[in-house]
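Handout, section B. The chain below has 367 residues.
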Amino acid sequence: MNTDELFHVLALLRIEGVGDIVAKKLINHCGSAENVFKAKPTQFKAIDGIGAVLQKNLKDKTVFEKAEKELRYIEEEQITVLHYQSERYPDRLKHCIDGPVLLFAAGNFDFQKRKMISIVGTRQITSYGAEITKNLIEDLAVFNPVIVSGFAYGVDIVAHQIAMEQNLQTVGVLAHGLNQIYPKMHKKHVAKMEQNGGFLTEFWSNSNPDKENFVRRNRIVAGMSEATIVIESAEKGGSIITANMANDYSRDVFAVPGRVSDKFSQGCNDLIKTQRANLLTSAADLIYGLNWELATVETKSIQKQLFVTLDQDEQCIYDYLQKNGKQLLDEVALECGFPIFKISSILLNMELKGVIRPLPGKLFEAV
């Protein structure tokens, strides 16, 4: 997208009554944002929802001053702008009807053909939640996923930190412009995050972290990822909103269960109980649910160790696969006497030890 078109997109987004959905309709119909401002009234008749009031608003010349100011900031700060029709724009977010027309980015991103998961939860994370988050990301690191969250207190920042420790790309989706960081105490993480990942926002440089912005931010977190994982959450809150948005976008949702007496497990337990989320007890549940295949991973290969120690359950499964060759996961569970949720975790550990390998179609074989 050239500078002139960016200028007109910025101006269009400042027209009263034009949001992301309407802006996309206008751009798609007219061919470009610049053409929207040049279009004659008769051209808008074919566009559903574009009435006389909006056509009148399109004549507002003050939006060009606002667009010029923001364009100067973008150029001076060397902000990367991702247009919803560009290749660099998160692919899954393109399929969300209310996805942002523009995303402002800071950092080093690579979203192309990447596994992406969002991890969200309470700002008052417990030791239980921190341990679950740590174990989950460490076990998923072999798949080299992009870890998405909201850069807030609690679960968000823990997820970002662990992702960085595992050298995984991590993205913080902000509820304000790129000219500031909220919360301020997280500024110390900015430089490292921008080395491998960074920050995305739809908000202009004059936008503050107002309450309503966080709800809008959550739809990006939910929409750009393959799945959303709720680590801990009270009965109500931003994490539940994000999970509901993910469901609306037909994304997979997972939630970590907790004790019924724990305040910050009530939201997760509710999501599971009402079938708005799959139960997540380990990385194996996610891997099984999303049908991720270790055999396709090239960035981090798993090799069989020279001396591998298997526990009793692992040895039972290994012996069965050695004897019977390639077997379906369900068949392994049935013949070895394990429930699915347990055998998924065992198989993941065995893959990490390099003694078995997954095959397409949920087949497994001994190495």
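Note. The mean pLDDT is 91. Compare this with the example in section A.
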